Predict the structure.
Amino acid sequence: MFAAGALAETDRLSRDDTRGGPACYHVAVTAIPDSDFAALGAPAPLAAALRARDYVTPTPVQARVLEAPEQDLLVSSQTGSGKTVAFGLIVGRVLLGDAATLPLPPSPRALVVAPTRELAAQVQRELAWLFAETGARVVAFTGGTDLRGDTRALRGRVDIAVGTPGRLVDLIGRGALALGGVEIAVLDEADEMLDLGFREALEAILEATPAARRTLLFSATLPAPIRALAKKFQRDAIAIDPRGGARSAAHADIRHVAYLCADGERLAALVNVLRLADDQRAIVFCRTRDNVAELHAQLTARGFPTTAISGDRAQEERTRALEALRRGHVRVLVATNVAARGLDLPDIELVVHADLPENADALTHRSGRTGRAGNKGVNAFLVERGARRRAMRLFADAQLSLSWTAPPDAAAVAAHDRARLRGEVLEALAAGPPAAAAAALAAELVADHDAVAVAALLLERALATRPPGEPLTRVDVHEAAAPKPRAAPSAKMALFEINLGAKDKAEANWILPLVCRRGGITRREVGAIRVARDRTLFEIDARVAGDFAANAAERDPRAPHVRIVPAAGELPARSFTPPRRQGPPPRGRPHAHPGKHRR
């Protein structure tokens, strides 16, 4: 049965037995006329809460979800699409029906699972105001907080439980959280949870809920693991993509730019980019928590009001950092990908990738922190000359069209400061005459000295309070548009090792693409590969060894046990040959793919 505001006549449902499993339907939707939430069947108390906050017209994902049949939903939605309100409205339908308030429940009736503490806290805040008039109690259960507080909360009323997978599993195991009364479960940012290794936790949580529950799965992308999860835990799921199935790599409200700088000058380029955006809130993304700590210290030393978050920071510290950015106490947030998804950070006008994203999906999520809710934003990449080929492959994978340019130099920063100071002076003059004491002092000075000299001295001192721009080496940005083929690898090679060897059935033909993917290089930069019993040694062109080492050190969610590190010693003359086995040879290579390797 369809909800109020049923699907338009031009919409259709189609059975797809191959992509979503034997019971997954896909909604192909056309544009629907503007409508309000009540007309689309939102519960009256929730529609009133939305009107009170001036939310009148649903976003595409909210409209599609409200108009879908009352079945399980598999929704592809990007960050900033309004998905929290979307699934909140469906939760409201399930829990309220036609009622205006909720009866006292013996245990939670709705469950929302989110990948990070920050996203869980944000979902709790959103649902709290959305359900404020219904009497519902929405409680968040996340790591980094006192378990005793969670158990106390669960002894009282909890209508909607929101939590991270690890904490929810912990509470279930302790017998503190009973999910037998759950009527609807929501998995938010499901692809992120799988990337973080929470599949077993998600399965344990869903298996603790009734089989008859309704299940909503929201994910920015719908790769095979997500569809497998949906097939296992959803029934007759409707797959909804408000974008009509098209990949949304470049948001219309975001301007993308790649700054090409000389090797080793990314920090100087970043300083100048931030100096030209000195009245904007910005997020600067790094690959690792160590990079975040180092860059935060460097920017702070240069006078930027900066804060930082990464996965190793305490929850209280992360919360304070985000609140400082929201309140305008700082204007630059340095972060790992923990800030790329789900966080409520309004008015971010600039995103800077100090380190290139790992892949196209990470690029999309990072970039989506700006250009939200109809606002314009800039998405900037700092690319050293030696990494431009990797950057171009990344942009192509993300279907991203952008312009290459040189980063602003010290002269551009100085010109910006002069123009800004001039504007401030003119604005102050237009606001009215200066204070009497200041006017009298000015009269004294120009009576005995040249007025231009006096003004110039004061302006010079004002400009001196602003940190200067960083000097940069001039680069040829046209190289990036059509880079020349790389010459053959140099004679200088750096030695690395990977913790897979003959005992893991390692072979050079599948070690090579793994090395290239993890290190962000091409086959041309890889030299000889030698398989030993417990490890594999391989050569990397010394010219790219630094970037390779940094990229390869990043944890790979698809194979977290695989480690690549610099190696000492010399490359063996030949690969290790294991002793011949007795009996027939084994069939296939059970561990021939690193993602299937077992420790």
Notes: DSSP finds 20 helices and 20 strands in the chain. Residues 1-34, 245-250, 480-489, 581-599 have pLDDT under 50 and may be disordered. Residues 12-240 form a domain with the Rossmann fold fold (CATH 3.40.50.300). The CA atoms of residues 443 and 449 lie 10 Å apart.
